[in-house]
Design brief:
2 helices, 27% strand
């Protein structure tokens, strides 16, 4: 069964998570974490988001993102595809 569509609207605040399959590490070292921060920073700038908080663990991450323009899906899709 498909996940319900995410409701997007200007000014929304989202708690986002992503993890490796099956809970495998996605950040092996500081180089991987820096690459993620570079990608995240690019999406934050391009989308006009505000990154309020983040937490990187070895096999997953948490983000608290505010979307002034209600454009979450587009940026998260690019971020997660580039992360693979």
């Amino acid at each position: 069964m498909a996940r319900p569509l995410r409701v997007e609207f200007p000014g929304a605040l989202y708690h986002l998570t992503a993890c490796g399959n099956p809970r495998q590490a996605i950040f092996l070292d500081d180089k991987d974490r820096k690459q993620f921060f570079d990608l995240l920073g690019r999406e934050v700038r391009q989308q006009g988001w505000h990154c309020c908080a983040y937490c990187l663990m070895s096999n997953h991450y948490h983000l608290l993102i505010e979307t002034p323009q209600g454009n979450l899906v587009q940026g998260m899709r690019r971020l997660n595809v580039r992360l693979k």
